Amino acid sequence: MFGAKVEPDFIGYSAGISACEKGEQWQRALALLSEMREAKLEPRVISYSAGISACEKGEQWQQALALIDAMAEAQVEPDVISCNGAISACAKGKQWQGALALLSAMREAKLEPNVIVTVVGSARATRATSGSGLWR
Q: Which residue ranges contain the repeat PPR (predicted)?
């Protein structure tokens, strides 16, 4: 009984990714997502969302956007949580173009961003471009 090998499953991987997100270990969260795919377990929206949230907390906007792209490639529909996380990551990284593109994509997909993401994203985009002439 003690020598039995336990194979991780979807729930185990997703719990691990979520724990990494809470522990601000974005690199490990991405590694677990990769391991999950290697184990022929397809990540679902909850797994991707936890990975995106980990990237957001680690201020890794590029990685958050890469996970949104990976979702599309895997034919996993992003939900409000995954999009809000990626938008927040872009906002923290002063990547207003990415944040606004995601807001637009959400509206096209009939997903309503939460009020906080909309206000914060818009405010940060405005501040980021105020001296650039882009909002004139």
A: 9-43, 79-113
Model confidence at 60, pLDDT cuts 50, 70, 90, reads: very high
Torsion, Cα 121 124 128 130, to 10 degrees, reads 100
The token duo for 89 is 């990551």
Among the residue ranges 12-16, 80-84, 111-115, the one predicted with the least confidence is 111-115
Least confident of 8-22, 44-58, 60-74: 8-22
- In this structure, are residues 106 and 113 in contact, taking their beta carbons and an 8 Å threshold? yes
Q: 46 with 40: CB under 8 angstroms?
A: no
Contacts of 113 (CB under 8 A, 6+ apart): 80, 83, 84, 87, 103, 106, 121
